[in-house]
Amino acid sequence: xxxxxxxxxxxxxxxxxxxxxxxxxxxxxxxxxxxxxxxxxxxxxxxxxxxxxxxxxxxxxxxxxxxxxxxxxxxxxxxxxxxxxxxxxxxxxxxxxxxxxxxxxxxxxxxxxxxxxxxxxxxxxxxxxxxxxxxxxxxxxxxxxxxxxxxxxxxxxxxxxxxxxxxxxxxxxxxxxxxxxxxxxxxxxxxxxxxxxxxxxxxxxxxxxxxxxxxxxxxxxxxxxxxxxxxxxxxxxxxxxxxxxxxxxxxxxxxxxxxxxxxxxxxxxxxxxxxxxxxxxxxxxxxxxxxxxxxxxxxxxxxxxxxxxxxxxxxxxxxxxxxxxxxxxxxxxxxxxxxxxxxxxxxx
Length: 348
Known about the structure:
CATH superfamily of the largest domain: Chloramphenicol acetyltransferase-like domain
CATH architecture of the largest domain: 2-Layer Sandwich
Radius of gyration: 22 Å
Order of helices and strands: EEEEHEEEEEHEEHHHEEEEH
Strand content: 15-25%
Distance between the termini: 11 Å
């Protein structure tokens, strides 16, 4: 990319999609009986994790040595095999009487495989290096489906189609963000939240190898507006570092107990910035199904969550370099000021 800092505006795209087939896929074996259910940890009851993140993978057709029918069959056969050890993904989330989530296996269980086609070419989809809300048309939606609903929905929906954000180099831009938003008053307390992988924190007992349940815990640090604006970068970095180190086994168990007692139902966005990192997911390396790595792999739309900052691995030719794309959602009124402040700090 020519510049480190870009303001991106996405035009409306005409993406006609024709759904050819919607098929529930079950595992080759280990199929749960009807009306069975699986207990979920209280960590899955955090209101912040009850979200649906539409994700796409784009591939060059030159990597395909067979027709779409063969590609779909490969995906179908692979999904059946993978669902043997990961059979919970054939179920549906539902709430129990006290609001707790569980995985339920009813008569409509199965991961959904959607076969579709379109005359749109990859070149028609715009910049394939950053998320684009216009791609949401590529995602299969049920009739009358509530937006981003997760309860009573399939845990896996795989679709095979033939066929205002910013990015900048990674840096600590919390102070710049606060200045651009012009937050008042100066003694207002701000929060930064981010997820921490707590697997290594659990010692008694340890998690079994291969555990794929939720083991993320939310860390939080606070500071006043004046301290962020007038303080130095080292002080801000120290706050974040201390918050990360503060996620211990006791912290995790305290979080679980708090959720069990209070069952929080609402997210608070006032004065909060949420950071989420996708760079450790190996989404490019793990998505080669025989026709090469995707040229883009990641989320479609970040705008439903205000004040979110997402680190994404950069694909394409720069993938091996470890470069990252940092996407930040801002109110339109703050975008120009944010860009000015970044440029004044040496980002071109």
